[in-house]
Amino acid sequence: MAALLVVTFLARIAITSVVTALTMYVVVGLDLSYAAAGGAAAALTVGLALGGPLLGRMLDRRGLRAVLLVTVAVQAVFWLSVTVLTYEALLGAAFAAGLLMVPAQPVTRQAIAAMTTAQQRRTAFALESVQGELSYMVGPAVVILGVALMSPGVVIEVVGAAIVTGGAVLALLDPPLRAVGDVDSTSSGRSPRREWLGARMVAVLLMAFGTTTLLSGVDLAVIATLEEAGQVSRAAVVVAALGMTSVVGGLVYGRLSMAPPVWLLLGLLGLTTIPVGLARDWLWLCVAVVGTGFLAAPTLSAVTEAVSRLAPAAVRGEATGLQSSAQSAGFALGAPIAGGALDAFAPAGGFAVAGLAGCAAALTGWLLTRRSSRGGPSGGPDIEAADRGTSVRRHGRC
Residues annotated as region Disordered (predicted)? Predict the structure, then answer.
């Protein structure tokens, strides 16, 4: 487990920085507009969103090393050719690179589910969420610093080399994706999609989308607030405060013997985000985002745990791929949604809309869960009941 977390953490640092690296290359290296950079980033993001279920299904059917062989080869070709491509060719290549990105995050989640017991899983998924928060804090910052110190073309190649190296080492590590005794996905035991992709799973995926929509909107609203106050240079401090409180929240969540349901965590996350817009300078903003940060990693961890529990082992790759796609879609749509609110209602509106989006996703998830619980079979055990059962078992062991 330690080796897996170290390798995938290094790979995820590189993967989380690809949008920033591509944006900086188009703006600085190709001397094009930010709109053009946004087009390249959008092509990559759409590829990531569509590639999640595709790669997950390949993991279920072909195994880890076969998928990594394909994705590492594609990444090597893309990152080696970026600096010689025209902008038009770059758009198509970025989409293909996103579609076949090294699946470090889904592999981590599947391996955790395979390598841990039910009593250990909450703590392990909390560590995975903390890992994700740290990678988002480190990756883009390193790229921006690298562009300031060297050419964007060199930074692009370093990022690509890190992704390829991470994928290759992950293939050598070859962590198990199924526990001993799990049904082989190549056998007739593969569950039809209609049996596990029911209302409960849809509720969790919707809440995954809502969580990242909120977090993406918060990032944009922080920048807008500081720009209005003339303190944009302090954005890194606020983002660091947000990230560190999220790390603390994830570690605390991993120690809990009884965890709240996903919809409650997301609802609280939304409610604590709405009033953040009342802060008017960087210092008060650091204080105001504590609640949002503290609940971010626990909410993401709870989503991952619920997906792992609701998906049969034979289709867990596809399920985690759908989760990654839902979260990628949330990140992609959160910024424009918050941006519209920022234009219409000033910075406070960005935080309010982001928080309300999270509350709406939490409410919808709760309604779907309750309806499914009352309506009979609809794709796996009840989310809340399963949480309570796991908590009781853990408490009994203690």
Answer: 373-398
Q: Residue type for 316, please?
A: R
247-301 per-position pLDDT tens digit? 899 889 888 878 789 999 999 999 999 999 898 888 899 999 999 999 998 999 8
Which helix (H) or strand (E) element contains residue 181? none
Query: Residue 180: exposed, middle, or buried by beta-carbon count in 10 A (0-12, 13-18, 19+)?
Result: exposed
Query: Is residue 101 a contact partner of residue 15, using CB atoms and an 8 Å limit?
Result: yes
194-398 shares the fold of 1-177: yes
Chain CA centroid to CA 361, Å:
16
**Looking at domain 1-177, what is its CATH homologous superfamily?**
MFS general substrate transporter like domains (1.20.1250.20)
Helical ranges in the chain per DSSP H: 2-16, 18-24, 34-62, 64-81, 87-99, 104-115, 118-149, 152-173, 193-196, 199-228, 235-254, 262-273, 282-288, 290-310, 316-345, 347-375, 383-397
**Residue 183 to residue 99: CA distance in whole angstroms:** 28
Q: Write out pLDDT tens, residues 56-68.
A: 888 888 888 999 9
pLDDT digit string, tens, across residues 176-227: 888 766 655 444 455 677 777 888 899 999 999 999 899 888 888 888 888 8
User: Where along the chain do its domains lie?
Assistant: 1-177, 194-398
CATH class of 194-398: mainly alpha
3-state secondary structure of 309: helix
What is the widest separation between alpha-carbon atoms in the chain?
62
Q: Whose structure tokens read 């050419």?
A: 151
Quick one: which of 12, 318, 317 has its CA closest to 170? 12
367 CA to centre of own chain: 24
Q: How many alpha carbons lie under 13 Å from residue 52 in its C-beta half-sphere?
A: 22
Please give the structure tokens belonging to residue 398: 């203690």
Question: What are the pLDDT digits (tens) for 125-159?
Answer: 888 888 888 887 788 878 878 887 888 889 899 99
